[in-house]
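One chain shown below:
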Amino acid sequence: MITLDMIDDIINKLKENTRECINISINPCNTLSISTSKFGGVPYVPTGARIPTDSTGTQLALLAQINCSELPENQYYPTSGILQFWIGRDANFGLDDKKSYRVTYFDKIDESITSEDVLENYTIPNEEHASPFKPKSSSFELHFNKDYSFITTNDYLFEEKVLALINELYPDEQTSDLYTDLEKEAYTKLYSSFKNNSHSLGSYPSFIQWNPRNSEDNYNFTLLQVDSELNPESDAPEILWGDSGIANFFISVDDLKNLNFDNILFNWDCF
């Protein structure tokens, strides 16, 4: 039988494998500059660039904009330029169609571009559109904090890694399924020891239902995670993915190193 002391050993071993990440905290603000990091609001769109559209020609909406020069020092993201995340304006935010979400990157920033220039061509989400932001026209200032994250329990690799550790540390224990083979107290302690990240860059991903990736995918890096969030004073939703869900953009580490954002996986799920 796997004891609680054994579970402590397994938890400590798992937590040796941390991943550098950048946590994001938000503050509602509708007066942000065109090129600063933000959720929602007016995107930076240089002269000659097109606003991304879906397969019907409908504009995508800016979910997030990261001015990479504002990030703390890290080993993954570029040190300059603007990275943007776009989603559909339909009820599923583009989830059902790869052409309805996008990641774009501009390596140089033209400081002469103004919000007025962009708003000649870009429509901020309104009551005709779906949006995770409440109200739909909201924008949020972003604050970055370098941190480390651990694997999450709804990652498809979690059970595989735990079973491998049990076999390594306690080979005499016949354990092939965590849910059926662990005692309730041990199972609860294991799964409650790994908390999810909220808004973040580069963290282990969090999910409400399941991980849409599998071992054959090469989407091995969480480029962006945006959680649902309530206003701390009123408890009113400021960001809401369905019923208190969470959203992720995935990429391969190699594509990120090469600044190739053509092959992206977007996912969101909720309760």
Observations:
- Residues 4-269 form a domain with the Hypothetical protein YwqG fold fold (CATH 2.30.320.10).
- The first strand starts at residue 19 and ends at 28.
